[in-house]
């Protein structure tokens, strides 16, 4: 049995820098990641993405400034959970970067991404995102969060999601 969970992941860009957050609790604790979480009942993806961004980083974004960059499916085979991560980027936002209970934000140069302290799949799709490619991925993880299978492709347009 699979349990399918819709999530969002927002990447904030400022010129050659990206804002990542150190996850302080829960899934992915101890790793740098974009900002996001589970979509709530009745919420559309971009509204959920903007809400999680605000909760975790203090930044506010208009949903019209969230651009789709990729769709990633993470299957945790042990639990049967499949996370559908809808990845967005934004270059326009407002507010002050603020540490939350969940995340400690920090700017990184896109040439100096801390991949060794991130989910192992990130090293494969971050470069696609930096090249402004649209991508689709399906990755499988063991109970120890080790990736053992990966499919990743570049798409021409969002309709291919
Ligand atoms: C397996 N490889 C992975 N690679 C890159 N990113 C990954 C990931 N697996 C999960 N993610 C992201 O991690 C966040 C989890 O969110 P998560 O903290 O569980 O959600 P939410 O804030 O709703 O949690 P609470 O239940 O409220 O604590 C969410 O953005 C999701 O896209």
From TrEMBL:
Pfam families hit by this protein: NUDIX (PF00293)
Record domain Nudix hydrolase: where: 3-133
Cofactor dependence: Mg(2+)
Alphabetized GO MF terms: 8-oxo-7,8-dihydroguanosine triphosphate pyrophosphatase activity; dATP diphosphatase activity; metal ion binding; phosphatase activity; RNA binding
One GO location term (cellular component): nucleus
EC number assigned by the record: 3.6.1.56
Catalytic reaction equation(s): 2-oxo-ATP + H2O = 2-oxo-AMP + diphosphate + H(+); N(6)-methyl-ATP + H2O = N(6)-methyl-AMP + diphosphate + H(+); 8-oxo-dGTP + H2O = 8-oxo-dGMP + diphosphate + H(+); O(6)-methyl-dGTP + H2O = O(6)-methyl-dGMP + diphosphate + H(+)
GO annotation, biological process: DNA protection; purine deoxyribonucleotide metabolic process
Keyword Hydrolase: yes
Alphabetically ordered keywords of this record: Cytoplasm, Hydrolase, Magnesium, Metal-binding, Nucleus, RNA-binding
Keyword tRNA processing: no
Organism superkingdom: Eukaryota
Membrane-spanning intervals of the chain: none
Compartments, record wording: Cytoplasm; Nucleus
Family: Belongs to the Nudix hydrolase family.
Subunit structure as annotated in this protein's UniProt entry: Monomer.
Function statement: Oxidized purine nucleoside triphosphate hydrolase which is a prominent sanitizer of the oxidized nucleotide pool. Catalyzes the hydrolysis of 2-oxo-dATP (2-hydroxy-dATP) into 2-oxo-dAMP. Also has a significant hydrolase activity toward 2-oxo-ATP, 8-oxo-dGTP and 8-oxo-dATP. Through the hydrolysis of oxidized purine nucleoside triphosphates, prevents their incorporation into DNA and the subsequent transversions A:T to C:G and G:C to T:A. Also catalyzes the hydrolysis of methylated purine nucleoside triphosphate preventing their integration into DNA.
Protein name, entry field: Oxidized purine nucleoside triphosphate hydrolase
Organism expressing this protein natively: Ciona intestinalis
């Amino acid at each position: 049995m699979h349990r399918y969970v819709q999530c969002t992941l927002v990447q904030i860009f400022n010129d050659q820098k990206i804002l990542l957050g150190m996850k302080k609790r829960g899934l992915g604790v101890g790793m740098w990641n974009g900002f996001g979480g589970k979509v709530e009942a009745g919420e559309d993806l971009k509204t959920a993405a903007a809400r999680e961004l605000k909760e975790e980083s203090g930044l506010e974004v208009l949903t019209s400034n969230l651009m789709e960059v990729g769709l990633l499916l993470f299957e945790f085979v042990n639990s049967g959970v499949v996370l559908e991560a809808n990845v967005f980027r934004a270059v326009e936002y407002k507010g002050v970067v603020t540490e939350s209970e969940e995340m400690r934000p920090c700017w990184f140069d896109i040439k100096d991404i801390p991949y060794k302290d991130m989910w192992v799949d990130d090293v494969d799709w971050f470069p696609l995102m930096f090249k402004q490619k649209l991508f689709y991925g399906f990755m499988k993880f063991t109970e120890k969060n080790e990736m053992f299978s990966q499919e990743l492709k570049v798409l021409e347009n969002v309709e291919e999601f």
